[in-house]
Amino acid sequence: MAFSIDSKVGELLDNNNTSQVLEKHVPGISKHPQIGMARGFALVTAAKYSGGLISPEVLKEIDSDLRALVN
């Protein structure tokens, strides 16, 4: 399975490799108080409601790292 910013936040958090990518770019995201609400959304969608926590630039970097993973 290939991962990208179109993957659901929950799927990304539940996978060790992809959760490390998220933590690299957004430290503490897995423990954020509102992360539970985002689990069912694609990361690109959740980013729109992150209050600037996940900027477009960071989103591009995350997408690049996720797509580079070999599953």
Task: Kindly describe this structure.
It is a single chain. The termini are close together. The protein has one domain (9-68). Helix 2 (16-25) packs antiparallel against helix 5. It has 71 residues and is an all-alpha fold. The chain contains 5 helices and no strands. It has helices at residues 9-14, 16-25, 35-38, 43-48, 56-68.
Query: In one word, what is the shape?
Result: globular
Summarize the main sheet: none
Unreliable spans are: none
Number of domains: 1
Structural class: mainly alpha
Strand fraction band? under 5%
Q: Give the overall average pLDDT.
A: 94
- Helical content class: 40-55%
- Would you list the SSEs in sequence order as H and E? HHHHH
N- to C-terminal distance: 7 Å
What Rg, in angstroms, do the CA atoms define? 11 Å
Number of strands: 0
Number of helices: 5
Summarize the structure.
The chain has 71 residues and is mainly alpha-helical. The chain is built from five helices and no strands. It has helices at residues 9-14, 16-25, 35-38, 43-48, 56-68.
Topology:
Blueprint: H1 9-14, H2 16-25, H3 35-38, H4 43-48, H5 56-68
Properties at a glance:
globular; 5 helices; 71 residues
